[in-house]
């Protein structure tokens, strides 16, 4: 009886080892259903976040709700936030009117000159830029390339506006090149290495700030994991948790350090782990930090604060979980402050009663919302520009008046 049992166990063991050996030497099988959207300059393939769902479901699902994922998308009548209803679909300029209309079921900006020949233009709205938290801008794929359209949508006022930095007349369409796209899409390639061209095959643009923007093109990782033989190790992705502080900061700073100049390499060549100054220099590097604008320069502001300068570890991930939408989760952020400002660091010196009155909301007083100098919108042709408020990352002591939410 016992002997029989040993025989069965032995046979099972041999069978198992045989299977493992077979898998080990049989090499990877081809996966035919894996669609590569685009190839990076280094030859590696982008496969998009839907392929990650199968094995990273938790991260995949929270990622779908982030401003990153939603920052660019193919435009449809359904996902454009502004209204197409007659009377609500208008931007009126001094010399022309732009109406948002549906033509053959597709969203279109229809412009008409007010005087003289009263010429009209129809431009398709093909790609939406902006998660729609503050606003959306629209790109049009024309026969001669990709262009930004003049009418944008401004969420806080729920209205169509003349795009920021446009004059109050019908402007020529603005060509969209890598310098504009680099912060709002994961990957795009145009045939011009000098980054001045607006020629793109838009079916090969990897939209959104997707997994592979931060983790690098992942085709190899997916193929490897789908064929995993239980033995060999997958080292195809850069391990982000073991980057140096500067490498980790550079990944976020590639889009969150404001205007950059001296662009010496195509911005889409930058990959996680790379050093950003090898690609471009910071436009503001020689300016005093008090002149930094709050829009889009979290890196410059954070690095000029004492919290950053006097701690060795702090980077963006200290406070942000890159896989989640944490907007307005003030409890989470305040816990991060308290986590550091505990026993051995300085404590807040305001009276306890005042702290309680403000709900112990550290960021309300030390990271107030400040009007942007660079991001201003004109809500109607009669009004002056209204600045958009952005929370500053220069963590510091501000006068009480700054802390109004
Ligand atoms: C077939 C399953 C599978 C698919 C599909 C898959 N992964 Fe993974 N991934 C894994 C497994 C298993 C690990 C853990 C590997 C290890 O620890 O050695 C992993 C690890 C990772 C890591 C951590 C790497 C590290 O060393 O820190 C990242 C990042 C990652 N995957 C990203 C992605 C992305 C992005 C996609 C989609 C483009 C994706 N994965 C698709 C199975 C998969
Ligand atoms: C490819 C450029 C790019 C990279 C890389 C990038 N971001 Fe962003 N990030 C953006 C853009 C664009 C937005 C604004 C999206 C929108 O609202 O349309 C944004 C928004 C955010 C927001 C605001 C989220 C919200 O709810 O409104 C946070 C926080 C943030 N990024 C943190 C990070 C961190 C941390 C990293 C590095 C791990 C990083 N980003 C890397 C482009 C990028
Ligand atoms: C804005 C940048 C960013 C985006 C977008 C992003 N990640 Fe990450 N991811 C990171 C960073 C940074 C880390 C390392 C965090 C750390 O150091 O603890 C990380 C860690 C990971 C890990 C390993 C550690 C863990 O938390 O399990 C996996 C797996 C992973 N990401 C998968 C994904 C997948 C899948 C997507 C898309 C659905 C995605 N990531 C999108 C920045 C990003
Ligand atoms: C250097 C990176 C960078 C470049 C280049 C850039 N943006 Fe942005 N953009 C951001 C960041 C970061 C945010 C949001 C956070 C902030 O305001 O600091 C943002 C916000 C936006 C928003 C508002 C999104 C929302 O809902 O809150 C729109 C619309 C937008 N950008 C359009 C554009 C267009 C169109 C271009 C090209 C002409 C462009 N951006 C170029 C980084 C960039
Ligand atoms: C990684 C640790 C760390 C985190 C997280 C952190 N700080 Fe700090 N902070 C410091 C250090 C170190 C200093 C320098 C003074 C000291 O040693 O306490 C400092 C200084 C300050 C100062 C004094 C600034 C000045 O100009 O005098 C304020 C205010 C402050 N922190 C508020 C905050 C708030 C609010 C948060 C959360 C949003 C926060 N800190 C998160 C480490 C941190
Ligand atoms: C000490 C904590 C802390 C660190 C470190 C930090 N952030 Fe933030 N960040 C916050 C808080 C708090 C908010 C406001 C969240 C809210 O209001 O919902 C925020 C908001 C943002 C926003 C949205 C701004 C807006 O008003 O639209 C962006 C973008 C952002 N962070 C990027 C970054 C980047 C990039 C880094 C690294 C250079 C970074 N953050 C480091 C605490 C931090
Ligand atoms: C109502 C606004 C308000 C709130 C809420 C608030 N602070 Fe302060 N904090 C201040 C002011 C004002 C000062 C400067 C007080 C002074 O000059 O004596 C200060 C000073 C500080 C300092 C510097 C202390 C020193 O010795 O230099 C730190 C660190 C700090 N706060 C951290 C925090 C943290 C962490 C929280 C959240 C738990 C917080 N603060 C909440 C207004 C606030």
From TrEMBL:
Keyword Signal applies: yes
Residues that span the membrane, as ranges: 5-22
Keywords annotated in UniProt: Membrane, Signal, Transmembrane, Transmembrane helix
Domain Cytochrome c-552/4 residues, every copy: 176-216
Tree of life domain: Bacteria
Record Pfam families: Cytochrome_C554 (PF13435)
Record protein name field: Multiheme c-type cytochrome
């Amino acid at each position: 009886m016992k002997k029989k049992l040993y025989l069965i166990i032995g046979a099972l063991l041999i069978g198992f080892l045989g299977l493992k050996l077979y898998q080990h030497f049989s090499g990877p099988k081809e996966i035919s259903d894996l669609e590569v959207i685009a190839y990076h300059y280094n030859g590696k393939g982008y496969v998009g976040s839907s392929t990650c769902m199968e094995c990273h479901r938790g991260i995949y699902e929270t990622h779908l709700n982030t401003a990153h994922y939603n920052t660019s998308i193919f435009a449809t009548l359904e996902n454009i936030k502004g209204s197409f209803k007659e009377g609500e679909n208008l931007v009126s300029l001094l010399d022309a009117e732009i109406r948002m209309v549906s033509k053959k079921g597709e969203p279109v900006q229809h412009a008409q000159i007010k005087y003289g020949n009263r010429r009209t233009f129809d431009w398709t709205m093909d790609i939406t830029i902006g998660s729609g938290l503050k606003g959306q801008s629209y790109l049009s794929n024309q026969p001669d390339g990709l262009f930004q359209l003049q009418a944008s949508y401004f969420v806080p006022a729920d209205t169509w506006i003349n795009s920021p930095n446009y004059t109050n007349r019908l402007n020529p369409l603005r060509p969209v090149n890598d310098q504009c796209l680099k912060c709002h899409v994961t990957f795009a390639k145009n045939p011009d290495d000098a980054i001045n061209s607006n020629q793109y095959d838009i079916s090969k643009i990897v939209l959104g700030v997707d997994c592979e923007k931060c983790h690098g093109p992942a085709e190899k990782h997916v193929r490897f994991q789908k064929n995993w033989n239980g033995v060999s190790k997958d080292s195809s992705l850069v391990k982000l948790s073991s980057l140096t502080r500067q490498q980790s900061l550079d990944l976020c700073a590639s889009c969150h350090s404001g205007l950059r100049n001296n662009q010496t390499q195509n911005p889409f060549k930058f990959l996680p782990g790379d050093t950003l100054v090898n690609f471009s220099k910071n436009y503001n590097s020689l300016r005093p930090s008090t002149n930094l604008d709050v829009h889009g320069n979290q890196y410059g502001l954070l690095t000029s604060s004492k919290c950053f300068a006097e701690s060795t570890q702090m980077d963006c991930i200290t406070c942000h979980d890159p896989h989640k939408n944490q907007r307005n989760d003030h409890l989470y952020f305040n816990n991060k402050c308290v986590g550091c400002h505990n026993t051995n660091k300085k404590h807040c010196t305001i009276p306890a009663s005042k702290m309680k009155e403000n709900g112990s909301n550290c960021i309300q007083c030390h990271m107030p919302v400040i009007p942007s100098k660079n991001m201003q919108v004109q809500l109607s042709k009669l009004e002056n520009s209204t600045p958009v408020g952005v929370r500053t990352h220069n963590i510091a002591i501000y006068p009480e008046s700054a802390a109004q939410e």
